[in-house]
Each structure stands twice: as structure tokens, then as C-alpha cells.
């Protein structure tokens, strides 16, 4: 069931992404030649007006083929003939739709939640040294750790773990006043955790808050923003060498992870909520990644659009779109190559 859920999820994410491009193009008066779900030979297709609608055999990707997308069309309703701001809206609409779907799934995940931990200090243990003079106090709400905002409670432990040092910069809300603790020594002590294991702990107890429906919707929104930040941190780790190819997963690895998550869930409802959370994470991840300024991605096309629009405004000369098309073609080949390598790695790991 988790595999079927994964296939359905991927199909929905692809569909809504291309639907965003399609709807924006139609509303902008740009001619859409084909709206297709998946790749390869068509198993179903129907011509409606100027647009061919199709479902294809290979369950990877999809596309919204617009007239003059890569230039070279004399059609007045071609993509390259539309005003630059219309083209910008069309290009960004796919990622926007994925983000909206991600937020909706987050809301569904957190609607059953009745209470949640908050980054508000309720008390300190006997061994804690964090509440000494000029330190933390009961009632402090932790707002930032090392320059990163706390969106949800789990961010605290995550952001603390990203800094191997015991010295951190904290920002807290204390009775409505913003208090900055620079180079604050966060001393840990060996103690027995609630699960019975010995761990290095700070000795802080946090507040558990009751959640109204409005609180749950807000929590889902904050979790969505936190997911955007997670994608940024992951990219930073890849660029800095802290993470590598082994830490990346493609469709095969994601399906395997979803299957394991469903199996380990104690109830069917927990399994469904966990899978929906993964779906929300993937939707938001797809939205952010698609806007990266990389050739072949929507972000790369947006950057190309802004650059060519600026150059043409200054020089009063039209830039041949074929050059940008060549760049995106090379980017697509490189992107497909990377996807193939990651998929091969996931398959090898699966058999191991």
C-alpha cells in the first residue's frame, strides 16, 4: 500500500506542478500545445481545442508544452511573445502550486494534534547550570539559535546539533522583551533520559501547550517554513562537503523510506499521517529545488528571463533564444545523469 501511495503521491506532485504552468499560461493567453502527465508513448490522449491532453507510460515527470517555449515561433500567442512578467508568473506557478499542496498536506497532518511542545522553558533540573546569573530563566521563549529562527520546538535540538561547539548565540523572549545571549556556554551533563538511557542533557524542561484548531493551522504553516529552511541547510551541507551522494535519495530511495515508515508506524492512522508528512515534505522540497538557478529547472529559466529582459531593455536588441535553449539542454542532460546515478545507488542499496 505504501508503494501505491508513493506512486500516487509522485503523480499528484507532478500533476499539480504542471497544472500550475498550464493554468498560468492559459490565463496569460499563451497557447498550450500539450499538457501531459508522465513521459514516453501515450496510453491516452485527447485533443481539446488547441491543446492535446495525454497520459503517458513512464511514470516520471510530465510537461506543459507551450508554443514558442524555446523561441522560433511567429505565433503572436507564443510564450516568447508574452510580456516578461507574464512569462515570470508562468514559470513560477509550478513551484507555487507544489508549495500550496505541501502546506495543505501539513495542515492535514497536524489537524488531529491536541497538544505540542513549545520552545518555552518550564523548569530546570537540579544539575542544570544554564539558569545561573546572566543565563536562561524560567518562562523564556527561545526565538533563535546561532542566527537561525525557531519555527517549531524540534528546531532547538536540530540547530544545537549543527554547531559542534558548546558555545551558542541565543535570542529569547523574556516577558515581552528580546534578550540576546552571545557566546553563551550551553553545558551538558550525563543524565538518565525518559527512555531510560544515559545521555548528555542540558537540564531544561519545556512547556506542553494545548492546541486549538487555529493553533494547529499555524503550526502546520510554521512547519512548512521550517521545511524550506531544511532544504536550504541540506544544500549548504552538500556544497560544504558535510553531505555527499550517499545522503541523497531519488524515487527508489524515497519509496523504500515510505515503506519502512509505514511498517514501523504503530497504527494505520499513524502510518497515514507519517506518509502525508513525507508527501508534504516532498512537495515543499520540490517547490524549493525547482526554483534553484540551475539550467533546465524553472529557477534557471527565471534567471535567464530576468537577464535577457534586462539586457534587451538596455541594448534594445533581441537576444536569440536558441542560446538559452542550448544552456537548458545541457542542464537537462546533466540533471538526468545525476538522477540516473542516484537511482542506481538507491537500487544497489536496496539489494544490499
SSE inventory with pairings:
Layout: H1 2-27, E1 32-48, E2 51-66, H2 84-110, E3 115-124, E4 141-145, E5 148-149, H3 155-162, E6 167-174, E7 177-185, E8 189-192, E9 198-201, E10 204-210, H4 213-240, H5 251-264, H6 268-290, H7 298-315, H8 321-351
Antiparallel strand pairs: 1-2, 3-10, 4-5, 4-6, 6-7, 8-9
Structure characteristics:
single chain, 352 residues, alpha+beta, Pdz3 Domain, two-stranded antiparallel ribbon, globular
Q: In a nutshell, what does this entry contain?
A:
By secondary structure, the protein is α+β, with helices and mostly antiparallel strands.
The percent range for strand residues is 15-25%
From the spread of the alpha carbons, the general shape counts as globular
- Percent of residues in helices comes to 40-55%
Rounded to the nearest angstrom, the distance between the terminal CA atoms is: 23 Å
Largest sheet, strands/sense/barrel: 4 strands, antiparallel
- What is the structural class? alpha+beta
SSE pattern, N- to C-terminal: HEEHEEEHEEEEEHHHHH
CATH uppermost class of the domain at 115-210: Mainly Beta
Q: Superfamily at the CATH H level of the domain at 115-210?
A: PDZ domain
Would you identify the CATH architecture of the domain at 115-210?
Answer: Roll
Amino acid at each position: 500500500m505504501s508503494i501505491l501511495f508513493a506512486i500516487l503521491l509522485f503523480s499528484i506532485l507532478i500533476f499539480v506542478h504542471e497544472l500550475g504552468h498550464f493554468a498560468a499560461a492559459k490565463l496569460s493567453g499563451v497557447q498550450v500545445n500539450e499538457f501531459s502527465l508522465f513521459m514516453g508513448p501515450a496510453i491516452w490522449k485527447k485533443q481539446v481545442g488547441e491543446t492535446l491532453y495525454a497520459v503517458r507510460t513512464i511514470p516520471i515527470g510530465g510537461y506543459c508544452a507551450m508554443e514558442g517555449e524555446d523561441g522560433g515561433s511567429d505565433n503572436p500567442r507564443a510564450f516568447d511573445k508574452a510580456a516578461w512578467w507574464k512569462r515570470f508568473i508562468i514559470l513560477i506557478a509550478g513551484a507555487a502550486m507544489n508549495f500550496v499542496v505541501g502546506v495543505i498536506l501539513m495542515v492535514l497532518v497536524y489537524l488531529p494534534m491536541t497538544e505540542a511542545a513549545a520552545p518555552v522553558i518550564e523548569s530546570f533540573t537540579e544539575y542544570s547550570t544554564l539558569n545561573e546569573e546572566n543565563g536562561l530563566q524560567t518562562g523564556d521563549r527561545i526565538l533563535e539559535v546561532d542566527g537561525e529562527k525557531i519555527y517549531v520546538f524540534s528546531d532547538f535540538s536540530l540547530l544545537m546539533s549543527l554547531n559542534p561547539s558548546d558555545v551558542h548565540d541565543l535570542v529569547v523572549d523574556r516577558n515581552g522583551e528580546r534578550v540576546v545571549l552571545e557566546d553563551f556556554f550551553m553545558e551538558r551533563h550525563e543524565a538518565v533520559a525518559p527512555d531510560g538511557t544515559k545521555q548528555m542533557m542540558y537540564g531544561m524542561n519545556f512547556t506542553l501547550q494545548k492546541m486549538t484548531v487555529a493553533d494547529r493551522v499555524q503550526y502546520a504553516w510554521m512547519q512548512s517554513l521550517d521545511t524550506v529552511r531544511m532544504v536550504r541547510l541540506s544544500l549548504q551541507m552538500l556544497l560544504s562537503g558535510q553531505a555527499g551522494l550517499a545522503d541523497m535519495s531519488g524515487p527508489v530511495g524515497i519509496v523504500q523510506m515510505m515503506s519502512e515508515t509505514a511498517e514501523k508506524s504503530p497504527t494505520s492512522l499513524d502510518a497515514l499521517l507519517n506518509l502525508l508528512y513525507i508527501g508534504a515534505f516532498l512537495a515543499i522540497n520540490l517547490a524549493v529545488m525547482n526554483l534553484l538557478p540551475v539550467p533546465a529547472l524553472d529557477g534557471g529559466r527565471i534567471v535567464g528571463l530576468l537577464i535577457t529582459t534586462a539586457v534587451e531593455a538596455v541594448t534594445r536588441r533581441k537576444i536569440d533564444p536558441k542560446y538559452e535553449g542550448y544552456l537548458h539542454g545541457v542542464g537537462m542532460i546533466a540533471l538526468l545523469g545525476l538522477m540516473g546515478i542516484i537511482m542506481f545507488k538507491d537500487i544497489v542499496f536496496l539489494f544490499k
